[in-house]
Write a structure and sequence with these properties.
Blueprint (H helix, E strand, L loop, with lengths): L1 E3 H4 L11 H10 L3 E7 L6 E13 L5 E8 L14 E6 L9 E5 L4 E2 L3 E2 L3 E3 L2 E3 L2 E2 L2 H4 L24 H4 L5 E6 L10 H12 L23 E4 L10 E10 L9 H9 L7 H13 L4 E4 L7 E5 L5 E3 L5 E3 L5 E5 L2 E5 L3 E2 L11 E9 L1 H10 L5 H6 L8 H16 L2 E2 L4 E4 L7 E4 L2 H6 L5 H10 L3 E5 L2 E5 L10 H12 L19 H15 L3 E2 L5 E2 L1 H7 L22 E2 L4 H13 L5 E8 L23 H9 L6 E8 L1 E3 L8 E2 L2 H15 L3 E5 L5 E11 L2 E9 L1 H6 L6 E7 H7 L15 E10 L4 H12 L3 E10 L8 E10 L8 H19 L2 E2 L2
Parallel strand pairs: 13-16, 28-31
Antiparallel strand pairs: 1-12, 2-12, 3-4, 3-6, 4-5, 6-11, 7-8, 9-10, 14-22, 14-23, 14-24, 15-22, 16-19, 17-18, 19-20, 20-21, 25-27, 26-27, 29-30, 31-32, 32-38, 33-34, 35-36, 36-37, 37-38, 39-41, 39-42, 40-41
Length: about 850
């Protein structure tokens, strides 16, 4: 909201010399955030001049210029720039005459741009200044000719400062208005807030206007028929109208009006339209004007019917929705209620009789209509935040009086008014509540005075105050909001900065601590954590959320940010692949990234999110919380890793090494170590992974994820290198299965005995399965086992392979003999033979 200071000063006392910075500082005290300061960016000397004579001089380029003699100071006096009273000026415009008063920018002036003015030689003359147009002064877009003061109804002595005369010396402060404080979208609201901050006397502009008498509805027929209210809220409960007859719509808007609208960020259109915009900014009540002679019958407010269309003031034909509120006459819709009027009844230069209308519309309906039709108008911006329902009658009367003052005409003695808003109920504010909530001791007088100052009706009752909020504050709906008003008006500086003391026995849960350890371990190993959007397609959920291609259920969003990805993810891999694709496209071809986040795994055929939300004023009970949790799909936390490009970059004396499955398995082991789990890697399969290059990850015998290379077709479709190694684990499952954690074993002090064991097994038997059998059979003496060779070739039966394991044995209480080590080794070989058909290789 932009607030011109001269306008603000009409309704609240500003100390002489108050700057925009002073106003900003005051408004910040009451919670209105400062944004910017706006001025016309002009500086003098700019004066009123009189055209004494001119000579038209055709030029070789086909253009005709006027060499003008312009008086810029009274006869016998020096001009504002120190020069003669009469200046010779070259002008290309032809819309002025001898004797016209014009705006002259003398040498030394600066116009918006910035565009400095200086005497310069042009078209064979030295032009000592410039005769300005409205656009050059920053007053509008009119650049067809120079600005003639007579067309604005202005007459002033020659040499008068035109900057002050046209209102170009004003400035506007811009503030950020939060959605709950719609009343601040008006000069009235900001003036009241400035009065709260400074103690200055506030003069309510609404109180200075003669409203339409309630119940007067015979002047012009109006009817409200809302047969399909949204959430039980009637679309409009207030509708006021006033008629002005015999206006002259061709009169120009006076400079002060144009200047204020310009500073407030609104373009001047015509006098009648400018006046409706002016009062909208002044009161915060949007207003619409109709050409009375173009109306057919009375006005009816209703919901649109299927298939109805309306051409709005922007010239676009819009197909209406059955939820849209429309203003109609006998021919059908003539306005989109609360958003924009229709072109058929638009006011123009030929308008002689005007119907001025103001209503109060349901915020929810207006917000939906504005977004549905992509019409974020100034009116809709105010209605969807809440407009004072008590000022519509005063607003139309204010516009009517301004129309009479500036465009002539006569106001009909009676207006029309429908006012059916219910009285607001009282909020009981218990004694001591404000002090407990804010943390500051407030006396009863302070609480009562603060609430009365914002316009509330405050009555003392047993145990507290009964507070009826003012009509312009729809955001005050409970005790917490009233407490905030007390704190705001008495100053946030009174609230102490006290660090809360954490109660004993609380802190991070085991799961939270492990998740942090996992993320820290991966980051410490050189991986970069990323956060991807959780929105995917149904196909991505089916591909990555199911290993064998069986159908899976997905959560579909009711209001997706992107219609192409309306589902919540079942896997982290689509997001990681998207991250990789963007980085590779930008030249980052070596990636080591991971994500730790939630996935959503609903049960097929079950509806979620259907539970009614409890009120937010109090903590829900256990039953309500259980019901809410039951309406949420399972959301396990996963961790996923992705590697591509080089794991080791090429360096002098060292070749590059490409990232692969081994690298993501290293990451998987880091996750397991941080979680205190023993990870088991076995051969697996997944439809999104490369056949034969996929590992199934297990903890305590249960599958917790997969690791491997992405399917080549998927990497090709994503414009990624052929080899992309990925892994994904259900971290919640890993944590749950690792309850006992990893048992730390003491370092043995006795010598170790090392032996090798070569076993011949069928080629399709996984080495991990053989290793597990050897470990189980060798018993507690086996300290370490590792696969050191996988041989397939001459000397072995067809379809067989030789696996060589390096074994290390140690006892905690003695030095092992070779016989004991050999016995343990053979015991391991025996179990391997039993489980896998292994035979000791000769």
């Amino acid at each position: 909201m932009r607030v011109p200071l001269s306008w603000l000063a009409e309704y609240v006392e500003l100390v002489p010399g108050t700057t925009p910075e002073d106003v900003h500082a005051a408004l910040v005290k009451v919670g209105l955030e400062e944004e910017d300061v706006h001025t016309f960016e002009v500086s003098g000397p700019i004066v009123v001049g009189e055209v004494l004579e001119f000579v038209e001089e055709p030029q070789s380029n086909g253009k005709t210029i006027r060499w003008c003699q312009v008086r810029v100071a009274p006869e016998g006096e020096t001009a504002a720039d120190g020069g003669d009273a009469v200046h010779g000026i070259v002008c290309g415009a032809r819309n002025f005459f001898v004797g016209d008063q014009v705006v002259v920018t003398l040498p030394g002036a600066v116009l918006p741009g910035p565009f400095p003015i200086a005497a310069r030689k042009t078209y064979g003359h030295v032009s000592d200044g410039m005769i300005a147009s409205a656009r050059e002064l920053g007053l509008g877009e009119d650049h067809d000719g120079i600005l003639r003061l007579s067309t604005l109804g202005i007459e002033a002595p020659v040499g008068t400062d035109a900057i002050a005369l046209l209102g170009l010396d004003d400035a506007a402060v811009e503030i950020n208005v939060t959605p709950d404080r719609g009343y601040a979208f008006s000069i009235r609201g900001v003036a009241r807030e400035y009065a709260h901050a400074t103690g200055a006397r506030f003069r309510d502009p609404v109180a200075q206007s003669e409203p339409v008498t309630p119940g007067a509805s015979d002047a012009f027929p109006i009817e409200i028929r809302d047969e399909a209210p949204i959430r039980g809220r009637v679309g409009s409960a207030v509708f006021a109208a006033r008629i002005v007859r015999g206006v002259d719509a061709t009169r120009p808007s006076p400079p002060w009006l144009v200047a204020r609208l310009k500073l407030a960020g609104i373009r001047s259109v015509s006098l009648l339209v400018d006046l409706t915009n002016y009062v909208m900014l002044e009161f915060g009540q949007p207003i619409h004007g109709y050409d009375l002679d173009r109306l057919r019958g009375g006005l009816v407010v209703r919901r649109a019917r299927p298939g109805e269309k309306l051409t709005t003031l922007d010239g676009k034909e819009r197909t209406l929705h059955v939820e849209d509120l429309v203003v109609t006459d006998d021919r059908g819709p003539i306005g989109l209620g609360g958003v924009m009027g229709g072109a058929e009844t638009e006011m123009g230069d030929a308008t002689r009789n005007v119907l001025i209308e103001a209503a109060n519309w349901d915020p929810v309906s207006i917000a939906r209509t504005a977004r549905r039709h992509k019409l974020p108008s100034e009116a809709a911006k105010r209605y969807e935040r809440g407009v004072d329902p008590e000022i519509a009658a005063a607003a139309v009367s204010r516009v009517a009086q301004l129309v009479v003052d500036l465009a002539g005409g006569i106001v009909d003695p009676d207006g029309s008014l429908i006012h059916e808003t219910p009285a607001r109920g009282a909020i009981v504010l218990p004694d001591g509540y404000v002090s407990r909530l804010i943390g500051v001791e407030y006396a009863d007088e302070e609480i009562r005075d603060a609430l009365a100052e914002i316009g509330a009706d405050v009555t003392r009752v047993d145990g507290g105050f009964a507070v009826v909020p003012p009509s312009w504050r729809p955001d005050l709906t409970g005790t917490a909001e009233l407490a905030e008003e007390v704190a705001r008006l008495h100053g946030y500086h009174r609230i102490p900065s006290v660090l809360p003391v954490a109660p004993p026995g609380r802190g991070l849960t085991r799961s939270q601590r492990i998740r942090r350890r996992v993320a820290d371990a991966l980051a410490a190993a050189g991986s970069t954590e990323v956060l991807a959007f959780p929105f995917v397609t149904d196909g991505e959920n089916g591909l990555y959320g199911s290993a064998d291609g069986s159908p899976v259920a997905s959560v579909r969003l009711a209001n997706a940010l992107d219609a192409s990805t309306p589902f919540l993810r079942r896997s982290l891999l689509p997001g990681l692949i998207g991250v990789a694709r963007r980085n590779v496209s930008r030249g980052l071809v070596d990636l080591d990234v991971f994500e730790l986040g939630l996935v959503f795994t609903p049960e097929a055929g079950r509806a979620y999110g259907s539970t009614e939300l409890p009120p937010g004023a109090a903590r829900p009970d256990a039953e309500a919380l259980a019901s809410l949790n039951d309406g949420i799909p399972p959301q396990p936390r996963h961790v996923a890793l992705l590697r591509l490009g080089d794991a080791v970059s090429k360096q002098p004396g060292q070749p590059a090494r490409a990232a692969g499955i081994a690298d993501v398995l290293d990451g998987v082991r880091q996750v397991a170590l941080a979680a205190g789990a023993e990870i088991e890697v076995v051969q697996g399969s997944h439809q999104a992974f490369h056949p034969g290059r996929t590992a199934e990850l297990r903890v305590a015998g249960q599958r917790v994820g997969y690791a491997g290379e992405l399917h080549p077709q998927l990497t090709e479709d994503a414009d990624l290198p052929r080899v992309v190694a990925v892994a994904e684990l259900d971290l919640d499952a890993v944590i749950a299965l690792a309850e006992a954690g990893v048992e730390a074993r003491p370092i043995g002090s006795f010598p170790a005995a090392t032996q090798d064991l070569s076993l011949v097994v069928p080629a399709d038997v996984p080495a991990a399965e053989v290793e597990r059998a050897v470990r189980d059979g060798a018993g507690d003496l086996l300290e370490h086992v590792v696969l050191v060779d996988d041989y397939r070739g001459a000397g072995l039966p067809e379809g067989a392979k030789s696996l060589t394991f390096a074994l290390r044995f140690r006892a905690g209480d003695r030095t092992l003999t070779a016989a004991e080590a050999s016995e343990a080794k053979l015991a391991g070989a025996a179990v391997a033979a039993e489980r896998t058909g292994a035979a000791i290789r000769d």
